[in-house]
Design brief:
The protein has 440 residues and is of the alpha+beta class. Among the domains are: 100 residues; 115 residues, no CATH class. It contains 12 helices and 14 strands. Helix 8 runs antiparallel to helix 10. The two termini are 53 Å apart. About 5% of the residues have low confidence.
């Protein structure tokens, strides 16, 4: 073995700091010395038992402190798998554990998926696939790749959840706004009553003598002259009460027009926000998140959250792919949009006007394009495309999903409409069960 000199290390240690060797730049590298034994060299159960018995109160601590390369998490996982107690040092229990560990070590050339769970219920994974070892370094490379992908996945989840949290706050904000609008609209329903009060008071002014009244009963000539009780504010004259009712009627009439438009706009914003949440929940990687981030950062709904980040993120998101998912169905090409921007790109840029367009009816989901290329699809192919649209939608767990389809030439993108939003005509509707053709 060739021993060289240390270039550098994460921590600098020497024998004066209670280290058993120098770990400093330009010092000679000394291989670490351990008092632990190698379990690979022990084939006799009695030797194994003598090493660990009467040293510690728990098996996992005893083995990990006595043998090199054996972690407590690994022993805990094997004890759980074998249904053994961590305090049972009997020969029967230890023999089961010993031969189980030796079997794993003797078959280390074929590594299989294992899941370790520590005492705090935090999960730590090793290798999640079957792997044929060609050399000793292959195992290291494989594990390094696995943990790299694990960290990458954790970053993706963290990134996605942080945006989901932001979008959820806007969702709650617009839900509260819609609730307030509905409350105001409910109040506007009484506007005709105030107009009636004003009319009846005005037409009966000549009959009313008293001026300080809390209420008055008048004949309602719209209801067979039945008496109707009208509340009054005695601080004001009778004629002023009538004017106040007319004023309230006009105010509610104007409010009705305004609130009706606000309700339509707010429901549209809510629908769009819910589509973003659907996109985020179905995103697969950071590239998908970047595309969604770019979309919402350029939308006026979220302008307060992204006004300082737009330029930078836009530049970073140019690499985001808008290419649709492609599936072959019985010789026909089917394209599936990944997100709102991707849906727009697919429908308005990639699809031909004579291709067929599919989308779940009034349900968030992907745009689906069936490329015809001068071919005529049969009913079975159209049904399969509808099933794909149902699967790539918010209704993927339902059993009977309505899916609209029509030629692309009948799908229009209104000016200034939000990403993914289109209108269409000449459509037919199929009710289908969602099916994932990507795994077929």
């Amino acid at each position: 073995m060739i021993i060289g000199f240390i270039i550098d290390s994460l921590r600098h240690l020497d024998i004066t700091s209670n280290s058993n060797r120098d770990i400093m730049p330009a010092r000679k590298y000394i291989f670490p010395i351990s008092t632990k034994q190698s379990l690979l060299k022990i084939d006799n159960f009695e030797v194994f038992s003598n090493v660990i018995v009467n040293k510690f109160s728990k098996i996992d601590i005893a083995i990990s402190n006595s043998f090199t390369g054996i972690s407590m998490a690994f022993i805990q996982q094997r004890l759980k798998t074998l249904n053994l107690s961590n305090q049972d040092f009997s020969n029967k229990s230890l023999k089961i554990l010993f031969y189980d560990i030796k079997s794993l070590l003797n078959n280390i050339n074929v590594l299989t998926c294992m899941q370790f769970i520590n005492e705090k219920n935090k999960k730590d994974f090793t290798i999640c696939d079957t792997f044929e070892k060609q050399s000793n370094l292959d195992v290291n490379f494989f594990i390094d790749d696995f943990y790299f992908n694990k960290v990458k996945n954790e970053l993706f989840i963290s990134y996605r959840n942080s945006i989901l949290k932001l979008i959820a706050s806007y969702l709650n904000k617009y839900k509260f706004r819609l609730k307030s609008i509905d409350k105001k609209l409910l109040e506007c329903k009484n506007k005709e009553k105030y107009q009636l009060y004003g009319e009846l008071i005005t037409s009966n002014l000549y009959k009313i003598k008293d001026i300080n009244l809390d209420a008055i009963s008048l004949e309602n000539y719209y209801d067979n002259n039945n008496l109707i009780d009208i509340p009054l504010d005695k601080k004001y004259s009778i004629s002023t009460n009538a004017k106040r009712y007319f004023k309230k009627y006009n105010k509610l009439k104007n409010a009705l027009a305004i609130c009706t438009k606000q309700k339509i706009d707010t429901e549209g914003e809510l629908n769009y926000i819910e589509s973003i949440i659907y996109e985020l929940e179905n995103s697969k990687d950071i590239s998908d998140i970047n595309t969604i981030y770019l979309e919402i950062s350029e939308n006026d709904i979220f302008k307060n959250s992204f006004k300082h980040k737009r330029t930078k993120q836009k530049a970073n998101s140019k690499t985001s792919s808008l290419d649709p998912i492609e599936v072959d169905i019985d010789g026909f090409t089917v394209l599936i949009g990944k997100n709102n921007i991707g849906n727009d790109h697919l429908t308005t840029k990639i699809a031909s006007k004579n291709d067929l367009w599919f989308h779940t009816k009034d349900i968030h989901g992907s745009h689906i394009i069936l490329k015809l290329d001068n071919k005529t699809p049969n009913d079975n192919i159209i049904k399969k495309c509808a099933q794909i649209a149902a699967f790539h939608s918010k209704a993927k767990l339902s059993s009977n999903v309505p899916v609209d389809y029509c030629y692309v030439k009948y799908v229009k993108k209104p000016n200034k409409s939000k990403p993914g939003m289109v209108i269409y005509t000449h459509n037919k509707t199929l009710y289908v069960e969602p099916l994932n053709y990507l795994n077929m």
